[in-house]
Amino acid sequence: MKIFSKIAAALLSGLIFFTPIRAGAADAWAVAAEAVGVLAVYNSTLKSMLALGNDVNAQMAARQQDIEKNGADINPADIKLVDEIMTRLVNSASYELKVNSLPFVWSVNDSEKFNAACYPMNYISVNRGLLSGLHMDEEQIAFVLAHEMIHGLNQHSAKSYAQAVAQSMGAIFLGANIESAYIDWTKFNGIVNYSVAKSIILPAEVEADELGFYIATSAGFNPGAGAAAMARMDYYFRYETQDIFEVDLHDKPNEQTFSDHPDTEVREEKLSQLMTDYSMGHVTVKKVERQYKVYIDGKEIYSAAYAKSADKAYYFAGGLAKAFHDYDNVDAWNFRKGAGRHTDFLTDDKVFRQTRDIAFLENIGDKIRAAVTAAYKNEKPAIRKKYFDAENKRLDALKKIKAENLNADIKAAERLRINADAYNDHKEGKLALIEIERAMQAKNQDNLAECLAIRGRAKAICGDFDGALADVNQAVAQDAKNLYNFLNRADVQRMRGEYDLAFADIDRAQKIDSKVAVIYQLRGEIYDELGDETSAEENFRTCYNLAKKNPRSIPLKYLKRIDAKSAEKLGASEKGIGNSDFHTNP
Questions:
Q1: Residue 143's closest CA among 63, 85, 92?
Q2: Which of 199, 274, 312, 387 maximizes the CB count within 10 A of its CB?
Q3: pLDDT block averages, 10 residues each, the chain of length 586
Q4: What pLDDT, on the 0 to 100 scale, is given for residue 170?
Q5: Pairwise CA distance, residues 487 & 469, whole Å
Q6: Which residues in 427-452 are b (16+ Cβ under 10 Å) and which e?
């Protein structure tokens, strides 16, 4: 790494470079920390970082910082591609969020750097330069983003930073602001030196490579795409980038020198091996002289020119691997005569497309059928059993996390409800619905009526006004002593344009407790929408005083009238939010 000032960025964000850590590596480090007397610092910092990672306001601020610093990618094709990939991964992949982790949020920024990162609070930042560097290849980008998801799911950022702070004994530097949603992330820069960063990042990158492979394949992406992405990345860094600070290549393949990520060739080999294992050992890709060659049980099936053609070989091989994984007999491949009397096989699923296209162009369908037939004939049942036993073990681990979520204690269940409400405050209805469903499923949830009210508000934000009204009415019916049920219903009525009903519910909430700041905040917002600035300002003044003069509780337009000095300070701090830097050179 060539820029030491960006080390903290690497600690706080999982980058796109892959390699398999053994689960529990962080715990092993904690044992070592105890031995050298810094375990208390490690545990304290880890606790703070995990709390930050479960803070919706911090997640939203991180996204704002990223876009303000790097700009927003305005190319709709980039945004559409990333949205489609992340939506597919989030909705279809096999994974479970930990009870103290937030749902994934993502965006595409305008940085030309070939990079992506996962912040501690499960915000995934994707650089425009990554998309162009990978030629907008959906499959390869999916593996990069799956890699980033693992950093979030396994809380690598929090653990890595806690290790770094403990080892450098720099915890005092963080002060009381570590749990602030508005941390200036640049203050983390320089806390640790490069030797610390290197020792921490590599194991997490290894794990993100391996588990990212399983995330991507479970969502149906091509098993060869991870290795293809590494081949493409290596070519980009060696021959295309003009930015000397963007990459620190090794002089020799397989040599780990000064990079905080494994060598791309090593990672390509490991991801290629994961694809081979996925195929029950049948499909391999090897570099031979200037070509990539694909084999089934050692028999060469296809070769592609070495330069820039790795993706062809890996996608061809990945389709074969997917079929061997999913089918335990040759009949399931559905070999048949297709157009022009060529032998066709498999289905129209996208994951098989390049395999079938190449087979047609090269007229090797019969060759593939012969090799596949022989492979099943010679396959040892123990190999398939061993692989699926390991796969089921991973699924059992996910079930364990889900069970832990369902049995979360009251505080954790309450936090899920609070997070959902915070998403509503940020107008993120879809995220609020994800979080409130988790809250309502928790066995120790102690306020299901308020959960209904929060869910109703989330539905309204998403445009389901009838469903929203049904939920908030049920919430009030179940608990008419909770003023927040009335406030949530008031906000739903506000979104429905039923302002008189909204004011009536706000009045009911005020009768329950007139010292709650949000009562006056909501009423002020409605008056502002109606154009009654005098009434709006009056309510915002009351809110400001009850909220202990928290400037973030008041719209800046009104804060300037209520407290000009605080408004000036807030405006300056908001401008500085974009100073965070989570982006490092490879």
A1: 85
A2: 274
A3: 33 35 43 57 81 93 92 97 98 97 97 90 95 96 97 87 63 40 41 39 83 98 97 86 51 43 84 98 93 96 82 97 98 92 95 96 96 97 97 97 96 97 97 98 97 98 98 98 98 98 98 97 97 97 93 92 90 46 25
A4: 42
A5: 13
A6: ebbebbbbbbebbbebeebebbbbbb
Is the CB of residue 272 less than 8 Å from the CB of residue 227?
yes
Spatial contact of 1 and 248, defined as CB atoms under 8 Å apart: yes
d(CA 39, CA 26): 12
Question: With contact defined as beta carbons under 8 Å apart, do 408 and 99 qualify?
Answer: yes
Report the candidate in 105, 163, 128 with the shortest Cα–Cα distance to residue 428. Answer: 105
**What is the rounded CA–CA span in Å between residue 377 and residue 369?**
12
Whether 12 and 582 have beta carbons less than 8 Å apart is answered as: yes
CA distance 96 to 536: 43
Question: Exposed, middle or buried, 466 (CB in 10 Å: 0-12/13-18/19+)?
Answer: exposed
The rounded Cα 174 to chain-centroid distance in angstroms is 25
Residue 416 CB neighbour total at 10 angstroms: 26
Residues whose CB falls within 8 Å of the CB of residue 565, separated by 6 or more in sequence, listed in order: none
Q: And the tokens for 291?
A: 């070509």
Q: Within a 10 A sphere around the Cβ of 77, how many other Cβ atoms? A: 10
Structure tokens at 507: 């009045």
pLDDT of residue 158: 80
d(Cα 528, Cα 554) in Å, to the nearest integer? 12
**What is residue 1's predicted lDDT score, i.e. its pLDDT?**
27
Looking at residue 198, its pLDDT comes to: 42
* Residues 6 or more apart in contact with residue 352 via CB below 8 angstroms: 319, 322, 323, 346
pLDDT at residue number 308: 63
The Cα 198–Cα 185 span in angstroms is 20
Number of Cβ within a 10 Å radius of residue 356 = 21
Nearest to 551 by CA among 539, 542, 561, 563: 563
Q: How far apart are CA 149 and CA 145, in angstroms?
A: 6
Residue 119 CA to residue 453 CA, distance in Å, equals: 30
- CB neighbourhood size of 298 (10 A): 8
**Measured distance CA(7)–CA(189) in Å, rounded:** 6
pLDDT value of residue 32? 52
* CA angle, 251 then 257 then 261, to 5°: 100
Structure tokens at 122: 């499960």
Integer Cα distance of 31 and 164 in angstroms: 15
Radius of gyration of the chain (CA): 27
Decide: 476 and 486 in contact? Cβ < 8 Å: yes
Please report the pLDDT score of residue 236 as a whole number.
Answer: 86
Burial class (CB in 10 A: 0-12, 13-18, 19+), 196: buried
**Based on the number of CB atoms within 10 Å of its own CB, is 238 exposed (0-12), middle (13-18) or buried (19 or more)?**
exposed
The amino acid present at 198, given as its one-letter code, is K
Predicted pLDDT of residue 552: 86
